[in-house]
Amino acid sequence: MTLNGTRAVTVGILALQGDFREHREMLERMGHRAVEVRKPSQLEALDALVIPGGESTTIARLILSNGFQGPLRAFCATGRPVWGTCAGAILLAKEVDRLDRPGIEVMEISVHRNAFGRQVESFEADVEVRGLEGGPFRAVFIRAPRIDAVRPPAEVVATLADGTIVAARQGNMLATSFHPELTGDSRLHAYFLGLAEAPAGIRH
Length: 204
Ligand code: GLN
Prior knowledge:
Elements: E1 10-14, H1 20-30, E2 33-37, E3 48-51, H2 56-65, H3 69-77, E4 82-85, H4 87-92, E5 93-96, E6 107-112, E7 122-129, E8 137-142, E9 146-150, E10 155-159, E11 165-170, E12 173-176, H5 187-193
Glutamine binds at residues 53-56, 86-87, 90, 113-114, 142-143.
């Protein structure tokens, strides 16, 4: 059993580059088993997968050189929850500006890298996340991407006050341009792990 009363599951965090440790620590605090994933063969044993923030061009390069692209696409198609935070969201998008090689390309979203400009490369903001109880989520943005377009079957999950899209979902897949693993708030991690339990009607 976990802190929030759900069954403990095994969650992988793609650990090629970026802030995988922070996700692992958050998931462990919640009472889940967290595994740093460095080889495609580790994917099979997982109930869910996080693709962390970091440098998307570097992670994309390592995905290709470690033979992860096909296995990650296959994992996304199994219906198990997959969550990309920041660079991870860039890698899940089918359309990205200025990414010099393919990522995983499974979500019907268009993403603009480093979209918030120099002065505000890092900032915090309260975001309203649809379906998340307990009030706004304090979100940390670090050289964050902006989600410019969300096409069906993907749907918008969170926006900033000015309407900028910062989270989207497509069935079992979630993309956030911010870093919930850097706050003490585990609600989005719990929300993500619940994506596999969604009614069949809203799975895609
Ligand atoms: N700017 C980074 C990129 O484009 C993402 C930043 C992050 O993951 N915090 O890869």
